[in-house]
Amino acid sequence: MDDQNKNLILAVVLSSIVMLVWLVFFPPEQPQPASLADPETGSLTAPPAESGAAPTATSSDTPTPSASPQGAETLATAPRVPVITPSLEGSLSLMGGRIDDLLLTKFAESLDADSPRVSFLRPATELSSFYALFGWAPGGDLTFDDVPNANTLWELAEGETLTPETPVVLEWRNAKGLTFRRDISVDEDYLFTIVQSVRNDSGATARIAPEASLERVGEPVDLKGVFMLHEGAIRQKDDERDSLTYKKMRDMDDDTPWSYGTNLADVAKVNGGGWVGFTDHYWMATLVPDHDTPYQSILQYDQSANTYRSIARKDTLVVGPGETVKSETLLFAGAKEWDIIHGYQENRNIDNFDDAIDWGWFFFLTKPIFRVLHALNEMIGNMGWAIIALTLLIKAILFPLAYRSYVSMAKMKELQPEMEKIKEKAGDDRQKLQQEMMALYKKERVNPASGCLPILLQIPIFFSLYKVIFVTLDLRQAPWVGWIKDLSAPDPSSIFNLFGILPFAAPDPNSLVAFISLGILPILLGISMWLQQKLNPAPTDPTQAMIFAWMPWIFMFMLGTFASGLVLYWIANNTITFIQQYSIMRLQGYKPDVFGNIRASFQRNKKPDAK
Asked: How far apart are CA 293 and CA 271, in angstroms?
């Protein structure tokens, strides 16, 4: 076996490992059914603390008595305040002041013309509820009844509809002379600003701690459950970032730092500048306390209510008679659009906020690749053509290495007669054969391993681009041409209905038949790989020839269910590689006989006539 064939086999093996790893380790999991929350059970609560001690917040294992005279009013019938922005539509409930009803107006559930908008935050009266609560933990002589909680019915003091131009103010007074206000504003994208204040007209000092919580009942119904994507709790604590899946939150044990109420929790002290919340595939809700304010970042699972919580609890504030204290918390609730969250990171001083996108282990590649792809898409206006432009740019950067590789391959072709003579002369003496070969390579200045380097560099680029296509919102429902309406999804065409000619639908993408229901792009991928092979004659060894003959079509099936954007990248990469290799080999005096190699392959596969 000559060195060129060794390099080709190495390339095949490496590429096969990449594909097999993806198919074995990244299968989708079925989401677990969500439970129905009890809207009467408030979850942002606190027991009475000893006089002079800091408040201690607990979970909602035991329903909290309502702090409102109308505590029997249910969440379903409580008054609501409309929320309308260019990006959001929904409402907040005056029961608890919950922000619990948001639709993402710029994003549809599917490509269907009548598809509903994406429902993100949901009230506790619905399955898979997800909402934000804000409140205070009592300390000193204050009790549950003295602070607003999840069951408190607030009064709408100012405003009627929450818009970027019109904030709203909620107000509630307790029986001890404390007046609580909540000023809520929202920008044109996804950022709410919640300013909580308490005025002390009681004549006695009050101790109280501001708190905010994101409550998620059950796992999200659209949970992907794949290894390459983090879905679950996420937080930035000083210079570190934690990511806990829903399973890890359920599996908290006695090794957890300490308990939060009656439930175990992961509690971290943050000096300032952090954030905490939950991230989905494309959407995210996070709480962002004041940048310079220390707080406790708490991740908790309440088994009795099947509720996951991300909590930001600030230090205790002392409110003297006649004084007013305030506490500000930001709430991001929306789509992980990179330019928006990066803008918040820069303009609102939110540390590492764009890292809420799961860039993965190859972040040093995925982040710049995305930035370039994002910029190309902004310039061209079409993500499919942007992917092709990105492929051209990557190939241009790697061209010096590719040039050396193709030149070496061309020289290896020229050395074939000399190599055959050395093999005949050496016979079975392997040591002599290697010595003679190395002497020939040194004399002709040929590196037989140079052909592997571009392939090795392509593997992390392929992984990184797949990550970018899978996790970033830019590819979701992004069209290219004609039948490709979503580059983040597999090619919807199918050979089973002759790509739409026959009057019946293609197989369901989630069915087993989808594996062999090839679309146009996977077929073009197989053809491009096959043509790339034909730049060189088939190996003389029958086993090697059979392996190489099958590889394009095996990859065609393996990649058939991958995202169209990734298949498009591979097709573009193969096409550019073919042109580069053909041109460079011609410049080196070797003329690849593509059509001759194709004819030879058909002749080898043709069965001899029976005699």
From this structure: 7
Q: How many CA atoms lie within 13 A of 307 on its CB side?
A: 26
Query: How many CB atoms lie under 10 A from the CB of residue 587?
Result: 12
Compute φ and ψ for 119, nearest 5 degrees: -90, 120
Residue with tokens 């933990």: 137
CA distance 299 to 282: 21
Residue 515 structure tokens: 């594996």
Residue 157 φ then ψ, to 5°? -85, -35
Write down the pLDDT at residue 104: 97
Give the pLDDT of residue 507.
Answer: 67
**CATH 3.30.420.10: does it fit domain 75-352?**
no
* Neighbouring residues of 192: CB distance < 8 A, sequence distance ≥ 6: 99, 184, 185, 186, 330, 331, 332, 333
Q: How high is the pLDDT of residue 420?
A: 73
The domain limits of the chain are 75-352, 367-605
Residue with tokens 């492929």: 391
pTM of the model: 0.81
Q: H/E element holding 578?
A: helix 564-587
Is-contact 102 89, C-beta < 8 A?
yes
Question: Each residue of 31-85: pLDDT tens digit?
Answer: 333 333 343 444 444 433 333 333 443 333 333 333 333 433 578 889 999 999 9
For the chain, residues with pLDDT lower than 50 are: 1-11, 20, 22-72, 257-259, 610-611
The H or E element that residue 457 is part of is helix 452-471
Instruction: For residue 329, give both structure tokens.
Output: 């918390």
